[in-house]
Design brief:
Blueprint (H helix, E strand, L loop, with lengths): L4 E4 L3 H8 L4 E4 L5 H6 L7 E4 L8 E3 L5 E4 L4 H6 L1 H6 L1 H8 L4 H6 L2 H5 L6 H4 L16 H4 L21 H8 L3 E6 L2 E6 H4 L18 E7 L6 E7 L10 E10 L2 E10 L6 E2 L1 H7 L6 H11 L11 H17 L4
Helix pairs in contact: 5-10, 12-13, 13-14
The structure holds flavin-adenine dinucleotide (FAD).
Length: 327
């Protein structure tokens, strides 16, 4: 058994002091971290419970944007009137994740930092996992890799990032606010999660002891949007491929588009080439197919997941058609 100590904090200063100590980890609702501890995958020496921090507010910003406190639950964020009316994409993505019971507990901060669902990462019977045990190899490369990455992977790790919420946040140009021993900083969502490269043990650019305090969304001009999640079961399953699509339209012309993919890479994957192709054009299926093809340019499938290359393209076409009122 791996022993650890536990402390609950009620203000941010105490959280930073406790969380900065070597071996400490912040504890949100524990729906991911505690599972990993039970499996012996994560072994913190001290848990710093941050669920009682006064960071649950969801409020409008002076510039028309929105701040969501890191301790807001996934349910509260999904169901908040400002989220439902101004960022329905985010609400849909949150509601596509996990189960009502989990969403009632899970926090926004914890959701961003949930770890991959790669089978080989979760099963310590496999000696090879560079994410769990750097330098040991990647069992998924030659193993069963149906759920794995097709974009941005490396020969060290082909795991994918599992959060639905983060895919919507990537499309909405969200910023993650953090506080740490060196002060406060704002990290654009696109720079928050990392590609595996040769350091797959690092999922994000967060430093030890840094606390997520909020997620901020800019005022949204993307009035048409949809989150499409393709999965093996209709609910309670992680995405094989998901698409967050948001459109700013003038009549039938796309002024600007945002497209982010889940289930295909080690981080939410912004399809910027596809976005550029759509901008300034009328939405039609031929153009959409071209944009979808651009989104998976350079894709590298593995033995069991080649289907994702086609699936991602079809999902992009359907999601943008739905967002644009074509479907
Ligand atoms: C059966 C099951 C099905 C699921 N299905 C889905 C799904 O379909 N889609 C989906 O997106 N998710 C899914 N999830 C994952 C779920 O959304 C996450 O487990 C949850 O969001 C994590 O939030 P938490 O508060 O419990 O985090 P915790 O488990 O408490 O923490 C997760 C990580 O975040 C860190 N952390 C927590 N809060 C902070 C903070 N404020 N600052 C810095 N670090 C912090 C912790 O140290 C830890 O490393 C599923 C989970 C389960 C168990």
């Amino acid at each position: 058994m791996n022993s650890f100590s536990y402390v609950r904090v009620s203000d941010v200063e105490s959280a930073l002091r406790e969380g900065g100590a070597a071996g400490s980890r912040f504890l949100g609702a524990g729906t991911n971290l505690l599972d990993l501890m039970k499996g012996g995958i994560e072994r913190p020496q001290r848990l710093v419970d941050v669920t009682r921090l006064p960071l649950t507010a969801i409020e409008q910003l002076p510039d028309g944007g929105l701040r969501i406190g890191a301790m807001a639950t996934n349910s509260d964020a999904a169901n908040h009137p400002l989220v439902r009316t101004r960022y329905p994409l985010l609400s849909q993505a949150l509601l596509a994740g996990a189960s009502p019971q989990l969403r009632n507990m899970a926090t926004v901060g914890g959701n961003l930092l949930q770890r991959t669902r790669c089978y080989y990462f979760y099963d310590s019977a496999f000696a090879q996992c560079n994410k769990r045990n750097p330098g040991s190899g990647c069992a998924a490369l030659e193993g069963y890799n149906r759920i794995h990455a097709i974009l941005g992977a490396s020969d060290q790790c082909i795991a994918v990032h599992p959060s639905d919420m983060a895919v919507a946040l990537a499309a909405l140009d969200a910023v993650v606010r953090v506080r740490g021993p060196k002060g406060e900083r704002a990290i654009p969502l696109g720079e928050f999660h990392r590609l595996p490269g040769d350091t797959p043990q690092r999922d994000t650019n967060l430093e030890h002891g840094e606390l997520i305090t909020a997620v901020e969304l800019p005022a949204s001009r993307f009035t048409k949007s949809t989150y499409l999640k393709i999965r093996d079961r209709a609910s309670y399953a992680f995405a094989l491929v998901s698409v967050a699509a948001a459109l700013d339209m003038q009549g039938s012309t796309v002024r600007a588009a945002r497209i982010a993919l889940g289930g295909v890479a080690h981080k939410p994957w912004r399809a910027m080439q596809a976005e550029a192709l759509l901008a300034g054009s009328a939405l039609d299926t031929g153009l959409l197919r071209k944009a979808a093809a651009a989104a998976v340019e350079g894709a590298k499938p593995y033995r069991d997941n080649a289907f994702k290359v086609e699936l991602a393209q079809r999902a992009i076409v359907r999601a943008v058609q739905t967002a644009g009122g074509m479907a």
